Structures are given as C-alpha cells and as structure tokens.
C-alpha cells in the first residue's frame, strides 16, 4: 500500500501525462489546461491523505488489505445506457412479489480475510456526508449501499465465497471514506455476517418488494422525518413536504377547536 506522498507523486505524474499542452494550442486552451491540471493536482493531494486515513482505519482480520479492484460495474437492467449489463439482476422476493434490481457500483475493494476473498463496497459522494448516516442505512432507509453489497455477494461479482467486510461512502470533498456498516465478524477464526448485516438483509428482502408493489400502484406517500428539511430549500414553496405539513397543522388546530 502506497504512503500518501508516494501516492500523490504517482497521481501527479499520471495527471501530467493526460493533460498535456502543445505549443501550437491556442493560448486560452493552454491556460485552461494549466488551471485544470492545478485543480486536479490539489485534489489529488487531498485524496492521498484520504487514502492514508482509509488504510489506517481499516478494521477486521485482514490477511491481505483491500485494494481498489473493480470499478463502475453494472448488474441487472439499469439506466446507464452507455454501459452494457455485466451481471444478472439482484432478485428479491419470490413468485408474484419478485423484484429484479439493477445498478452500477462505483468501486469494490478486494482483499482476503479469514482465508476467504473479502470486499468493501465504496460509493463516491460529492455532497455533504451529513446527509448519509449509519443509522439510516441500518434501518433500511438508505438502501443503495446494502443492495450493492448484496449484489456482490449473491451474484459472485468478486468470487463465489466472497464475504462483505464493510460498506460506506467516500465523501471526496470532506475526509474521505465513511463506513456505514461493518458487515462481518470473526468467530473462532471464521468470518460470518454480522448480526446487523443479517438483519438489514432481512429488512430489504421484506421491504423492497413492498416498495416496488406500491410504486406500481402509484402509491407514493409523502414521508420526511427531517423537521428542518425545507428550511433553506429553494423549492420549499412548491414542495409536497411543506404542503403536507401545512395540512397536518390545519387538521391539528381544527381538532383542538372542536375538542377543547
């Protein structure tokens, strides 16, 4: 595993190879290329620090630490028209409740732990990490990462006996990788799915078919637990969340008047 300075030096070298200017290029093009190279170089330095932190914070009985191995791999039918389907769909539910899930996974880091192939699912985010909490993932409210990890395990995207060690978001504008769930635990030298990971899969097996059935029926209820959601939003005047909350307040006040 490369240290941060070594990592950055290699990144900067590759960057300069990709962004080259020619003496015959218009001056504006040369200036823009230089600016782009400078910005990307600065980001490369920040990413090197994020990578060093990621390696330092690794948990679990890793025999071979996880390294980025698979990028932007697709499974099932997805909306990414420029990328052909590479793997089958993830199937949840049975019979008439069966749902086929597709998507594209940003990155899968692969290593070995407990004598088995082990992986970490990484999803890049450019926004604030505050929008993504481990509590939401464990409760099955944010289902993207868990579905990705289930697809890797069940479809054999890494290997047939590969075990999920963790899943999380890589917040590129902040401190890098933020683990959402430790998916494996070691017991007597053997790796098994953690209790939290087992429970989460059971939740998704039950809830995803229900969500799909509701969508097919046109059932899209408004539900938002964030009381401050519309506070600074430019769409607050037209947002259904704001409208529903206003109706709830009117109903509450009416009931209070009728039943003092």
Structural commentary:
By secondary structure, the protein is α+β, with helices and mostly antiparallel strands. It contains six helices and nine strands, in the order ααβββββααββββαα. The protein has helices at about 5-20, 25-55, 135-140, 145-155, 195-215, 240-260; strands at about 60-75, 90, 100, 105-115, 115-125, 165-170, 175-180, 185, 190-195. The strands form three sheets. The chain has a five-stranded mixed β-sheet, with helices on both faces. The chain has a two-stranded antiparallel ribbon with strand order 2-3. Helix 1 (about 5-20) packs antiparallel against helix 2. The longest helix has 30 residues, at about 25-55. It is globular. The model has no long low-confidence stretch (mean pLDDT about 85).
Fold topology:
Elements (H helix, E strand, L loop, with lengths): L3 H15 L8 H30 L5 E14 L14 E3 L6 E3 L1 E11 L2 E10 L8 H5 L5 H12 L7 E9 L4 E7 L1 E4 L2 E4 L1 H22 L23 H19 L2
Helix pairs in contact: 1-2
Count of discrete alpha- or pi-helical segments spanning 4 or more residues: 6
pLDDT < 50 runs, ≥5 residues:
none
State the total count of DSSP E strands.
Answer: 9
For the report, how would you describe the main beta sheet? 5 strands, mixed
**What kind of oligomer do you see?**
single chain
Across the major sheet, the strand order is 1-4-5-6-7
Terminal-residue CA separation:
69 Å
**Overall pLDDT level:** 84
- As a percent range, the share of strand residues is 25-35%
**Radius of gyration of CA atoms, rounded to a whole number:** 23 Å
* Series of secondary-structure elements, N-terminal to C-terminal: HHEEEEEHHEEEEHH
Structural class: alpha+beta
Write down the overall geometry: globular
